[in-house]
Amino acid sequence: MSDLGYILRKTRLEKKISLDDLQEVTKIRKRYLEAIEEGNYKVLPGSFYVRAFIKSYAEALGLDPNEVLNMYQSTLPAPTIEKPVVEAIRKNRSSVRNTEKMSRWASSLMFVCFILLIFGIVYYYTYKNYKGTPADEKPTQTQSPRITDSTNPSPSTSVNATGDGKATGLSTPTPTPAPTPTPPAVQVKFSATEKGVDNYIITGTANLNIQFKITGSCWIAVNELTPEGEKGTLLRQKLYNSGETDTFDLASSAFLNVGAASALQLMVNGTLVPVGDTPNPKRVQLNLQKS
Length: 291
Prior knowledge:
This protein is of the alpha+beta class. The protein has helices spanning 3-14, 19-26, 30-38, 47-60, 65-74, 87-129, and strands spanning 187-194, 197-203, 208-214, 218-225, 231-240, 245-250, 254-258, 264-268, 271-273, 282-288.
């Protein structure tokens, strides 16, 4: 048994996870999992599957897959670097690709210029044929009656008899109240995938609401993130079964480590977040940005 296999087996036994449970979570055959623990990598289909299986095994146990893969890489001999033998052919292919790119770019530029020319012609003739309203067509203003022509002025329009020139009894307009600002709606937006982690930004809310709906056997670990974006408190680490649900209400960001993405339906503040339709591991970071 290799050092890597010993560490994986010891961690699995400490977490009280059987090979059958691990097979259900990772969708990897039991005999391949046993071969990884025993260091017998020749049993696995190929080197690509070895790395993929070891990564899935580590994530299902909550271990750092990069550290586990580095440990596996250290046990392999250094690969030999083969010198290229078709350098001239590659240069010719690169030259042909560059020529094709320039041709496509020139065609696109000509098409854009043609569209702009059409818009310019339409704008010119539209502006030239535009007719404004002549000044002599303005409606005639009706002459308002003078105060001196009124024989019986109402109290609301009476003039102050003191001669100070100020009108008394005039009603003042009621000020219009300012409209109440509408609070921003909660938004959950995908930002980027960095180092195998899908990052989402949540705005318009002070709290993070996470809801799980399990459609198959799935191992999930939930960590609360510190203000610096590092993993903090481990809130939950559990092997869920089909039909189970779970809810988390947090005042900070969170990190999810999912063993089988296709077995999880994830809702964040009422928005469905896609995690994948294959039974592969998935890591998701929910970044809460408070206003």
